[in-house]
Amino acid sequence: MNTESNFILNRIKAVKYAAKGFWILITSEKSIIAQVIIALIMTVIGFVMKISATEWLFQIFAIGLVLVAESLNTAIEKMADFIHPEYHKKIGFIKDISAGAAFFAAIFAVIIGLIIYIPKFI
Ligand SMILES: Nc1ncnc2c1ncn2[C@@H]1O[C@H](COP(=O)(O)OP(=O)(O)OP(=O)(O)O)[C@@H](O)[C@H]1O
């Protein structure tokens, strides 16, 4: 098989593994399931409040940002637990930093949400 078709096959395989990871996240990771539920609620609210196209763009971006950050946080937590299952100050620090990254995303998502929805109530 030539290098070019190998490249394409490897890319297809990579997408398959990524889709598998995506499925694991949305079906078995409680923190991701919670964020997906919040995303669905915000989507319903978006339709009910008839937000504009630009507001949809920001809302979808915020939802994506939170889900990506939360997913990477989950991956780092899993890796930390695998590398060092016992209690260790450094593992705690790494997990806290990783959770902090997800918190960062959540703060900005909340700010975006407030900017979109507060004017609709005043
Ligand atoms: N092995 C460890 N060593 C030191 N501190 C830890 C360790 N595991 C967890 N911690 C501390 O507990 C916090 C929460 O841990 P973690 O993110 O693994 O969530 P959990 O509550 O244990 O499980 P889950 O995220 O599945 O609900 C971490 O941010 C860290 O401060």
UniProtKB/TrEMBL annotation:
One of its GO terms (cellular component) is plasma membrane. A divalent metal cation binds at residues 29, 77. It is found in: Cell membrane. It is a multi-pass membrane protein. GO terms for molecular function: ATP binding; kinase activity; metal ion binding. Belongs to the bacterial diacylglycerol kinase family. This is Diacylglycerol kinase (ATP). It comes from Lutibacter oceani. The lineage of its organism: Bacteria, Pseudomonadati, Bacteroidota, Flavobacteriia, Flavobacteriales.
